[in-house]
Amino acid sequence: MERVSSGIEGLDVVLGGGFFRGASYLVVGDVGTGKTIFSLQWLLDGLKRGEKVLYITLAESAKQIRHNVSGLSWDLEGLEIKDFSPAATEPNHLDDYEIFFPSEVEEEPFWQKVYRALEEVCPARLVLDSVSVFHDLSANEYSFRRRLIAFVKHLFDRGCTTLFLADAREMKSLVSISMAVDGVLRLHRRLSKTHFVTLRLLEVLKFRGSDFVSGHHPFRITSEGLKLFPHLVERPASRLADQTVFSSGIEELDELLGGGIEAGTVTLITGPSGLGKSSLALQFLTQIVSSQQTKGIYFSFEESLESALRRCARLGIPLAPLLEEGRLRFVRVNPLELYPDEFLAVVRKEVEEGARVVVLDSTKVYLLAMEDYGNIRAHFYNLVAFLTSHGVTTFVVNEIEDFLGGSKISEIGISNLADNIVVLRYLEHEGRIMKVINCLKKRLGRCQPDLRSFELTAEGPKVGEKLKHLKGVLSGVPRIG
Questions:
Q1: Are 36 and 71 in contact (CB under 8 A)?
Q2: What is the DSSP secondary-structure string of 66-78?
Q3: Which end of the chain is more exposed for a tag (fewer CB within 10 A), N or C?
Q4: What tens-digit pLDDT sequence spans the chain (481 residues)?
Q5: CB-based contacts of 310: which residues, under 8 Å, 6+ apart?
């Protein structure tokens, strides 16, 4: 069976390749969910492919439809719209019949006009907005079902792919069309409870002839139309394809890590604020990109590029030259503006364009911002699974609230996703605050269990000697032992 492109970025992935030629589909949604934009975008895609298309409107006038999408960067020239909606000067005639029911007078002419329009245009793609009008004009449910089934068969015989539009509030009364069509797509629109922004989601309820990606798929309405971000469940890598071990560029840190960081693994750098977690992540990133002649990207959910450049200049970390060479990208992300699957799409694009090292800084802001979009840990697991399945070496910066003492690795339960865990801690000693570093976990090898001093210098992050003379360091207030 031939597939027909949806013309909507991401939707063909969800549908397994697009709609089927000659099939009929029901698109339902509440007011303002984007049904009209969805269908027009699909028709415009047909025009680009040299197909004849037809939009039949039974509710809004053609003038209203064109006005409603005037803010989009679309050219509707060549788009055939048959306007069967009530004229502005026409009285509410459906309420004016005193002897006959409206269905006895209006039903047959309406169907005749639709069939006549099909004969005139011979479209390959058809949109009928809204099928609820046909239902309201039918004498009874049996009459509506019989005519509808005959109409769907007629469309199939003509090879005309069709979208029927309907209001979601009328779904219960439209059971007949749900059964007659080959697929049902539901558009959702709801208000975020914490961010006070509109969330738009698409769900495929039915799709004959093919498997599809189930679940809620977020989408946005942009100046170019709908853009959908499929919620794809990623499979983590079963084994590491690359056996390379990357150096951090700091001899003492490599010793602590048992030689360095293995390619394709996930490293969690965790600790309280102000210890140098981001600087350490940038040290790893710049060192690997420089030594391996590869590409990397730093996703920052908090710090600006200007701030990072100033800090790296003081620490001797070569961020600026790598950015100028184009081998490293620094992307400032506002997670309040992105769906989790939308951010994953951004990461996927960067990886497809060659990024082999990725830094996510920091998980706390990312996960708090994504809490309205389902299970945040599940979304993060999906993100990490994608990166590992593509052999990307990943560094995740995580902030915990404890200042001194405490035993948390992550306050949001993601430490199990990491292959390596580097812990930075504060401790109080002889009237001053010291910083300590430790490798708590190394999945693919042995690391040194030492607690070592850590500081940021003009030559970059520095790892000192083992703190042999102190006991109870992890309590935050050690004693000499």
A1: no
A2: HHHTTTSS---TT
A3: C
A4: 899 999 999 999 999 999 999 999 999 999 889 999 999 999 999 999 999 999 999 888 888 888 888 889 898 888 999 998 876 555 554 455 444 445 454 566 788 899 999 999 999 999 999 888 887 777 778 888 888 899 999 999 999 999 999 988 777 667 888 889 999 999 999 887 766 678 899 999 999 999 999 999 999 999 999 999 999 999 887 777 778 999 999 999 999 999 999 999 999 999 988 999 999 999 999 999 999 999 999 999 989 999 999 999 999 999 999 999 999 999 999 877 888 999 999 999 999 999 999 999 988 887 776 777 777 788 889 999 999 999 999 999 998 866 555 556 665 667 888 999 999 998 877 778 889 999 999 999 899 988 899 999 999 999 998 887 666 556 555 556 5
A5: none
Tokens (6 digits) for 438: 């430790």
C-alpha Rg value of the chain to the nearest Å: 30
Residue where the block lists tokens 């998980």:
363
Q: Which residues of 383-407 are buried (b: 16+ CB within 10 A; e: fewer)?
A: bbbbbbebebbbbbbbbbeeeeeee
Angle value at C-alpha 360, between 344 and 317, nearest 5 degrees: 140
* Residue 205 CA: distances (Å) to CA of 28, 190, 214, 456: 10, 18, 8, 55
How does DSSP assign 249-311, residue by residue?
Answer: S-HHHHHHTTTSEETT-EEEEEESTTSSHHHHHHHHHHHHHHHHT-EEEEEESS--HHHHHHH
Query: In 3D, which of 246, 320, 314 has the Cα closest to residue 279?
Result: 314
- The token pair that represents 197 in the structure block: 């922004």
CA distances from 268 to 39, 160, 231, 289, 398 (A): 45, 54, 25, 19, 7
Antiparallel, parallel or unpaired: β 452-457 and 432-442: antiparallel
The burial class, CB within 10 Å (0-12 / 13-18 / 19+), for 208 is exposed
Pairing of strands 266-271, 261-262: unpaired
User: Residue 361 is encoded by which pair of tokens?
Assistant: 């800084």
C-alpha distances (whole Å) from 29 to each of 32, 94, 190, 406, 436 are 8, 25, 11, 49, 55
Cβ(419)–Cβ(266) below 8 Å: yes
Distance of CA 112 to the CA centre of its chain: 44
DSSP state of 237: P
Angle at 79 between CA 73 and CA 80, to 5 degrees: 150
Token pair of 284 as six digits: 């790893």
Q: CA 468 to CA 308: how far, in whole Å?
A: 34
Q: CA 108, CA 115: separation in Å to the nearest integer?
A: 11
Alpha carbon distance 154, 150 (integer Å): 6
DSSP 8-class letter at 235: P
CA contacts within 13 A on the Cβ side of 20: 16
